[in-house]
Amino acid sequence: MIDWLIELSLRNRFLVAAFFLLVGGWGYWALLTTPIDAIPDLSDNQVIVFTDWTGRSPQEVEDQITYPLTVSLQGLPGVRVVRSSSAFGFSMINVIFEDSVDLYFARSRVLERLQLLSKSLPPGTVPTLGPDATGVGHVFWYTVEGKGHSLRDLRSLQDWFIRYQLSAVPGVAEVASIGGMVRQYQIDVDPNRLRAYKIPLSTVVDAVMRSNRNVGGNVVEASGTWSIVRGLGLVESTGDLEDVVVAAENGVPIFVRQVADVKVGDAFRAAALVKGADEAVGGVVVARYGVSTVDVINRVKEKIRALQAGLPPGVRIVPFYDRSALIERAVHTLRRALIEETIVVTLVNIVFLLHFRSVLIVTIPLPLAVLT
Q1: Which domain holds residue 81?
Q2: Nearest 5 degrees, angle CA 252-CA 254-CA 257?
Q3: What is the model's pTM?
């Protein structure tokens, strides 16, 4: 058999050389297009479901959100196990599928089941899917820094400008904001003033909720033209909240400013980002499942350079974790090891064979073996 194969190869040298070049070219194309990462992905094939229920205890979250969702998601095709956890005002469910199940097929099945279950959940709770990423998808971290700018201003810039721009980069699944202060309108109700006006707290809450919305109307026709009628009520400043009517007494309106103090404050937070000895505002870029990490990081860097011109004076985006450097070092180490092994094998063949053409027969297929 071996003699026949050798004889066939010698008689068809052109076909053997062409096949060699074809396989080598295919291997080189695969080398350029295969996703590369320095950290192996050992995470499960899973879909994560998050649900917020603000102000509720872990037991309430478990009974009314986590348990009903967990029981219903267990019946999906390809599900291996469902794990869940409940915390204060927060529920997280990990739906783990078999490794043979496609991730996006699994996400579509979970989303369909969540749409059926939304009516049975408490009002105001909306389950959402986690990003289509793996456990090692945090590939790029950065901070937003600027002298003379408060943590609240930097966090607002990150939440409403930088995050949306980076989320549009191909291959990015999510950009998470960390650190800083989240700006919010705060209404500090004075119970003594409420008691004086004989107004319950629920009336103030309902009045504020109803006021923060636009109302569509109709049109008024005059002189052959239409004028659109609509009501504008979205809150744009603390003054808008102060002028919200809570109730009326003898035809005299009672405003929010008469029973409460309205101000711009910081939302409650449970964690912070510290860089060196100071607090900072930053973001985490999460790469999508199955993409090339190096390509995603390079595109994110290009987007950051483009965004820099549109930032306020003195504000800049500073990377502090970049996995592409680790990947490049790993690739360099592998490349050096392969070259060294090729040289060692060639030298050993020269010493033992002492025949140039015989050495070529052993050495030339080594690059092809690496590419395939």
Answers
A1: 46-129
A2: 140
A3: 0.78
